[in-house]
């Protein structure tokens, strides 16, 4: 039996910088036990942002999908005004997706050790040095078992 672990590489050009600061992440370990309900409550600014977003998105839908709306006097100007009302929260810029097949690996990824072997195999096939490989931001996903083990 072969273990066919298929893979693809998708460039993430809009992410700047290197991989996360591992030391800073490790320093946060276990701190979530001190979190309170207030830590996740939306702020007044969050409330204002959501209220404006809801109202402007509803207005946008009414403008776009109301029967015969395009025949209204000043429709384009109204649509432009409504579109400008929609708040933006760190919007991602539009970019062409660069996805490439990376081949199949005959590695059993059904365990944590198997996941490590798959990641090592991907690294070897990439032909990047350890330093370059470690500095790249990457998202690795798969089926439930793979994602759970990762």
Provide structural commentary.
With 150 residues, the chain is mostly helical. The chain has 2 domains: 4-29 and 95-149, no CATH class; 36-85. It has helices at residues 22-27, 44-65, 75-85, 112-126, 130-135, 144-149; strands at 4-10, 99-106. It has a two-stranded antiparallel sheet. It is extended, with a radius of gyration of 23 Å. It starts with a strand and ends with a helix.
Distance between the termini: 23 Å
Specify the oligomeric state. Answer: single chain
Overall form: extended
Count of discrete alpha- or pi-helical segments spanning 4 or more residues: 6
Strand content: 5-15%
How are the strands of the largest sheet arranged? 1-2
Helix content: 40-55%
How is the main sheet built? 2 strands, antiparallel
The low-confidence parts are none
Number of domains: 2
Any idea what the radius of gyration is? 23 Å
Rounded average pLDDT: 85
The total count of strands amounts to 2
Q: What structural class is derived from the secondary structure elements?
A: mainly alpha
Protein topology:
Layout: E1 4-10, H1 22-27, H2 44-65, H3 75-85, E2 99-106, H4 112-126, H5 130-135, H6 144-149
Antiparallel strand pairs: 1-2
Helix pairs in contact: 2-3
Short description:
With 150 residues, the protein is mainly alpha-helical. The chain has helices spanning 22-27, 44-65, 75-85, 112-126, 130-135, 144-149, and strands at residues 4-10, 99-106.
Entry keywords:
6 helices; 150 residues; two-stranded antiparallel sheet; single chain; 2 domains
């Amino acid at each position: 039996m072969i273990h066919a672990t298929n893979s693809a590489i998708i460039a993430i050009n809009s992410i700047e910088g290197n991989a996360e600061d591992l030391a800073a992440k490790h320093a946060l370990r276990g701190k979530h036990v001190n979190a309170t309900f207030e830590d996740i409550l939306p702020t007044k600014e969050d409330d204002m942002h959501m209220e404006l977003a809801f109202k402007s998105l509803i207005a946008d839908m009414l403008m776009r999908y109301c029967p015969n709306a395009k025949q209204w006097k000043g429709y384009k100007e109204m649509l432009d005004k409504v579109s400008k009302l929609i708040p933006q929260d760190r919007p991602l810029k539009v970019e062409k997706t660069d996805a490439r097949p990376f081949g199949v690996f005959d590695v059993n990824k059904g365990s944590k050790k198997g996941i490590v072997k798959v990641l090592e195999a991907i690294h070897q096939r990439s032909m990047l040095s350890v330093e370059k490989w470690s500095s790249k931001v990457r998202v690795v996903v798969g089926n439930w078992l793979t994602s759970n083990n990762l």
